[in-house]
Amino acid sequence: MKNLRFLTLLGLATCATPAFAQGTTVDKGDSVWMIVATALVLLMTPALALFYGGMVRKKNVLNTMLLSFVMMGVISIVWALLGFSLSFGKSHNGFIGGLDYLWGNGISVTAAYGALTIPAALFMLFQMKFAIITPALISGAIAERVRFGAYLLFMVLWSVLIYCPLACWVWNSDGWLFKLGALDFAGGTVVHLSSGISAIAFCMVLGPRKDKSPAPNNLTLTLLGAGMLWFGWFGFNAGSALAMNDIAINSFLTTHLAAGAGLIGWMLVETMRHGRPTALGAASGLVAGLVGITPAAGFVGIVPGILIGLIAGVGCCFAIELKHKMGLDDALDVIGVHGVGGLLGSILTGVFADRALNPAVPDVSRGQIIVNQLVAVGAAGAFAFVGSLVLAWLVNKVTKLRADDEHEVVGLDTAVHGESGYTIDENLVTVS
User: Are 331 and 272 a contacting pair, CB within 8 Å?
Assistant: First the structure.
């Protein structure tokens, strides 16, 4: 019976009204695991800040890190008051949730949530961490030239109008993609594909930096951030089982192996093409592997997990060249890693998903499962792109998105925040 608990992530509990959320007994072991998983997922946002912060110029390191860090405050409030209800309230049309949980109404800290064995408040908190990191991912694409206030406005609107509908489509039992049979264990379409595709639209409206090829200021920060992301991702994926069961353990296993395979795949491509692997490539490769396995973690076994990670690592490495061909200034390769990685992972989920491992896999032909996945990525990608393009255009009309030229030249740390990430005087000369 515990295997079936994962079905609640896909929506058995998400359409529950506050009154219905009284039906199951809370399991303390499951709740303890989910508290740990929730904390691990939150850790991923400061880890992302480190990952991004090391790759930009030192005059923008604080601003870049803050673009991720600030989402922990802003989106937490938006999610608790409105976003959770729009995503997981009962939907009457399959596209957006109702107002069952508006302003936090009916989110119990003691009663089990629908068919889950954890309290409603804990489920809400776990999903909140996904809602936090998704817009933070987009920030890497538009780093070093976006106005801070306009960025905050865009991200609040994006979270409510883009992320919440997508979460409803895929993870709410009333959602139309859920009913179609689309599979997304922990966010391949809802988190990674949507952020990568949205980054394309944002970059198109914002335009390129004045200098598009800066040297990273501190790759040690990037490596540290990548390692922390790897660690936090266990909560992201294994926690999506929503219980301490065999699906959680399998998800933990496939997540770890895919990250390793992605790292190896990226370094192999670098070695074959350029004669040497790089630290940045290793960090990017493990993240690509993690992105690729995210939609599949609870549906596939060891060998498919390794293959998915390897394909994502290799595929995303080659995909980085796309931004140059498209003429887009994706500063930190959000499109190539998260957009392409989410796309590959979502499709490969259809290829490798095993009903023997997880009964949430539809009992239909392999071809039909793959078709369902293609429909899901097509619909989610189109919605995220068009919606983000419209939002960015509107926000740019209300308040300019692009930082002033002089601010971009001086650096956003000093110009916007009056601070510096590195306070050592570069002009100081030591005489021996």
Answer: no
